[in-house]
Amino acid sequence: MIRVLLVDDQPLIRSGFRALLDLEDDIEVVAEAADGAEALALTRQHLPDIVLIDIQMPVVDGIEATRRIAADPTLAQVHVVVLTNYGMDEYVLDALRAGAAGFLVKDIVPDDFVHAVRVAARGDALLAPSITRKLIDRYVTQPLPTVAGTGLDELTAREREAVTLVAHGLSNDQIAARMVISPLTAKTHINRAMTKLHARDRAQLVVLAYESGLVSPRSF
């Protein structure tokens, strides 16, 4: 059973998402919160698999709540997925750097929303190519300084290649096809890279790939 915590300061938004998830036999909404502080408390209480959290909220916003959840070692198995609007792309990078496993736009198609919850529960990042494109666009228009000492020198050539493809938004199957290896081997390369780079998940690999200079936005 996939356990979900819904966090949004708008009751109508929460009830809409809950109605969709309540239709699924393998998903359970364990609690709802109206702000980031309440979300943190309920996350510690219920230990959900997924926290679906809005960005702009009172008391504590979604990005800060995500940062606190990601920093708590007792919540290491909790995957935070940020909810946002199309007009708020500037927050995407901040959410990923805070530890989010990905993000969803609020007007997502219902079937895609439910699928996304299952994807996040498996530990896969919600970073489709179109979403990654928006992240890259920010680097192009507002480039950040390259961060040194990220540990990239510890990666093998194949692990670096896999990380590069993750940063371009490819799935494990697509990475396997591009590298001419099995999906299991692709996943192994990615998991080893995450361990060596101390990345919480694939989403953080994307951030590290760009901040380290491994991938250039203009190469996408």
UniProtKB/TrEMBL annotation:
BP GO annotations: phosphorelay signal transduction system; regulation of DNA-templated transcription
Modified residues (4-aspartylphosphate): D54
Protein keywords: DNA-binding, Phosphoprotein, Transcription, Transcription regulation
Domain Response regulatory: 3-121
Lineage top rank: taxon: Bacteria
Domain (HTH luxR-type): residue spans on this chain: 148-213
The protein, known as: DNA-binding response regulator
